[in-house]
Amino acid sequence: MVYHWQSHQYRTSGVDDMVLLTKITEDSIVENLRKRYMEDQIFTYIGPVLVSVNPFKQLPYFTNKQVEQYQGAASYENPPHIYALADNMYRNMIIDSESQCVIISGESGAGKTVAAKYIMSYIAQVSGGGPRVQHVKDVILESNTILEAFGNAKTVRNNNSSRFGKYVEIQFGSGGIPEGGRISNFLLEKSRVVSQNAHERNFHIFYQLCYGATPEMQKSLGISTPDYFTYLNQTGVYKVDGTNDAHEFQETLKAMTVMGLSEEEQTNFLQVVMGVLHMGMVTFVEKNNYAVVDDDQYLEFPAYLLGLETDQLKTKMTSRVMDSKWGSRSVMRRLSTMPCKQILETSASVFWTYTASKSSRITASSSSASIT
C-alpha cells in the first residue's frame, strides 16, 4: 500500500501537518497553506487542530466515496479532511464512552456553517439505526435549512453568512445510534432586520417568501416584491448569485414539515415573519407637536398578522406611560416622531428575535420531533 504522504503530489503541495514544518514561522505557515490551497488541498492539520481554507467553489471531496474512505481509517492513512475529524470524534465517543466537542471558529466567510453541515452529515451517514432513528437524523440535518433561512444573510464577504452563533448537541445511545438533538442560537444580529449595510441583504427567509410564495400566500400575507418593503429595499440588493430563493423557500417548508409542523402552524409562523416586514411600512408625522401614524392601514395589517389590536399597538408606538412622582398614579406621555420610529424598529427587532429563537429551539428524539 502507498499512503498519500508517499506520493509526489504530497511532496510538492506542502505538508499535511504543520507541526512537521522545519521552521515554524508565520511566513512558513502561510506559504504552506498557499501551496496546498493552489492544489485544492483546503484542509491542513496543526496537531489535533484542523485548519480549513474556504475554496469558494465546489470540490469533489464530500461524496459517499470519501465517507467510505475515512470511516474507521487512521488519520495518517488519508489526507487531512473534516471527515477524518468527525470520524475520530465519533469513534472516540463509542470507544471511551465520553462526550466529544468540536469548536468551529473563524472570521465571516471562513466556511464555519458549511463545516458544521459536513460534520453532521458525516455522522448521520456512518451511524446506524432503523426508520425511527432515520427520522431523528432527518430532523437534525433539516434543522440547518431552517436556521439558515431565519439566521443567515448575504454580506459583503459571504453570500450565506450566519448572523448568530449556534450550539448543536447530538445525543447518542449505545452503539453510537443518534437518539436526539438540540440546537440553540445566541448573539443574533437583530438590528439587521431593520437596517443593512451597503451591498448586503436582510435575512434569507424574507426573500424566499417574496420570490417563492404561492398566490394564496401572497394574498393572505400581503407579500409583494422585495423592492416594495422598507426593510428590504435600503441597499437595492435583492438577488444572490447562485441562489434560487424560490427553490430555497420550498426547502424551508419541507424542513418545517420534517420538524412536524402542520400547514396551519407553518402559516402562523410565516404570519409573524411578514408581520415584522410590514411593520417597516409604518411611518409617523407630526401633528400638534406629537407623532401620529401617517396612514392607519399600514398599521392595521401588521397588527392583524401579529395577533394584536390595532389601537393597542398604535398607543404603544406613539406614547409612553410614566409613573407619577406623587402617589401611585401613572401619566401617559405623547411622543414625537423620532422616539416613535425608534420604538417601531425596536419592536420589529424584538419580534424577529423571538421568531428566530423559536425556529432554533429544536428538540428531536427517536419517537418525536418538534420545534418548541
TrEMBL record:
SUPFAM superfamilies: P-loop containing nucleoside triphosphate hydrolases (SSF52540). One of its GO terms (cellular component) is plasma membrane. ATP binds at residues 106-113. One of its GO terms (biological process) is system development. Keywords: Actin-binding, ATP-binding, Motor protein, Myosin, Nucleotide-binding. It comes from the Eukaryota. Pfam families: Myosin_head. GO terms for molecular function: actin filament binding; ATP binding; microfilament motor activity. Residues 13-372 form the Myosin motor domain. PANTHER family: MYOSIN, UNCONVENTIONAL MYOSIN-IE. Belongs to the TRAFAC class myosin-kinesin ATPase superfamily. Myosin family. This is Myosin motor domain-containing protein. It comes from Ornithodoros moubata (Soft tick).
